[in-house]
Amino acid sequence: MKRKIYGQLLEWKEKRSHKEALLVDGARRVGKSWIVEEFARNEFESYILIDFSEVHESVLDLFQTYKGKWDDFFMHLQLEMGVRLKPGKSLIIFDEIQNFPPAREAIKYLVKDGRYSYIETGSLMSINANVKGINIPSEEHRIDMYPMDLEEFMWALGDDITMDYVRDCYKEKKALGQSLHRKMMDYLRLYMIVGGMPQAVAEWVASRDFDEVDYIKRNILDLYRNDISKYAHGQEARVIKIFDTIPSQLQRHEKKFKLAALGKGTRGRNVETAFFWLEESRVVNRSEEHTSELQSPMRI
Length: 300
Description:
The protein is of the alpha/beta class.
């Protein structure tokens, strides 16, 4: 499926891939791995994808055994992965790099070596457990990836012209007309139901089955809950409570997240770390509304 972030990947390749790695950060299941591999397939002569969520131990050992010995490192990496790399024409992808921080630390030296280009993908990139004991490379440019927006959703449904016209009308402050307005409202309502997760969108395109789409989205929510239990060290209970409370909170007319819903006497300083975890995982977007009394109640 066509994604807007592809243009950012192209810009990086053309202007900066020789001097910095690209880190694609985003929530689980927003399509990071797919778009990066599609980009590698289209724009490079060869590529290696190392998925640190399931890579063989022998590949991990290369980062320790041949650290600083890059001729040996690349020779063994090619043998392990069964791919021939071509200097200046190949890409190495570190997928789910948060699972193996030493690879992220090695980016500094790999970029300096200059033979190949590098893209990292991951989530929870700033959580202490994922950066503990390593130096974050300055030779790393970070971009965020989100679920599909309305225009990308329309592209997936085969409509790649309507939004361009809507955009022109907006710029010229010209009315859409009743027919086009109804069409756009239908798209918006459908998008609100299906959502922007690529797997759910692909299922809708293939089957037009709301039950299957809902099943996929519930599985993704279960995945997020499992991640909380696995990675939110010491904050699991608070993060899960906030996560489970969000839908009912946002059903309220004023659309504010009230800390009192988490329990009597709950204060912002007691749950700030839990909110940070949810923000960093890209599970929520938080906005802070500042009042004239210089207070900043949390809003989600």
